[in-house]
Design brief:
Order of helices and strands of chain B: EEEEEEEEEEEE
Structural class of chain A: mainly beta
Number of helices of chain A: 0
Radius of gyration of chain A: 14 Å
Radius of gyration of chain B: 13 Å
Order of helices and strands of chain A: EEEEEEEEEEE
Helix content of chain B: under 10%
Shape of chain B: globular
Strand content of chain B: over 45%
Largest sheet of chain A: 7 strands, mixed
Shape of chain A: globular
Strand content of chain A: over 45%
Helix content of chain A: under 10%
Number of strands of chain A: 11
Oligomer: heterodimer
Largest sheet of chain B: 6 strands, mixed
Largest interface: A-B, 27 and 22 residues
Number of strands of chain B: 12
């Protein structure tokens, strides 16, 4: 059983819709991630929230907007998506040591993903 | 920057065959190394890990040894089963909080 839960598991949306993906982690981790997995493409890191700092991949379009209200919850807000945005969206969490100590990041724990289809 | 290169798939094997999936990395410092597995319709699951040179990670009959001299972390299994059919990802975690993933290698095991 995963300690990272994503909802919904499947989502079909039109290009004019607004929807949100939700992720919740029960592992006490301090870093959360959104990844995009497309067919025949490597895993693409979209956003990282760690220690209240957000790091993003500058190539991610602005129609994707993350929100991290606390260390256990992460959202990905979707707005006016394109068909090429159809993919599996994976949330993950890990524990990152604080700056000043030996820098170490534990392995990432993944949710089961949301299969998004944009029509 | 840090990177991971793994062999392209798909890899097709018969049941009970020996499996090797090659993985090499580029990183500064002393990264931790991982293998993840993704079954159809699922997220990634950690398969095994190694946190320092010469460590051997093992799980479910799979093994990988952290070779700093060759910057490699090859995945091996002595006898694969149909249930091992999945996509396997090599990954590293170095400085900072990003985990770098390889492109993934799809494994098909035939009965």
């Amino acid at each position: 059983e995963t300690g990272v839960t994503q909802t919904p598991r499947h989502l079909v949306m039109g290009m004019t819709n607004k929807k949100s993906l939700k992720c919740e982690q029960h592992l006490g981790h301090n870093a959360m991630y959104w990844y995009k997995q497309s067919a025949k493409k490597p895993l693409e890191l979209m956003f990282v929230y760690s220690l209240e700092e957000r790091v993003e991949n500058n190539s991610v379009p602005s129609r994707f907007s993350p929100e991290c209200p606390n260390s256990s919850h992460l959202f990905l807000h979707l707005h006016t998506l394109q068909p090429e945005d159809s993919a599996l969206y994976l949330c993950a969490s890990s524990q990152y040591s604080l700056p000043g100590t030996y820098r170490m990041n534990t392995e990432a724990f993944f949710g089961q993903g949301t299969r998004l289809t944009v029509v | 920057g840090d990177s991971v290169t793994q062999m392209e798939g798909p890899v097709t094997l018969s049941e009970e065959a020996f499996l090797t999936i090659n993985c090499t990395y580029t990183a500064t410092g002393y990264p931790s190394l991982f293998w993840y597995v993704q079954y159809p319709g699922e997220g990634l699951q950690l398969l095994l890990k190694a946190t320092k040179a010469d460590d051997k990670g093992s799980n479910k009959g799979f093994e990988a040894t952290y070779r700093k001299e060759t910057t490699s972390f090859h995945l091996e299994k002595g006898s694969v089963q149909v249930s091992d059919s999945a996509v396997y990802f090599c990954a590293l975690s170095g400085e900072g909080f990003k985990t770098i993933f390889g492109a993934g290698t799809r494994l098909f095991v035939k009965a």
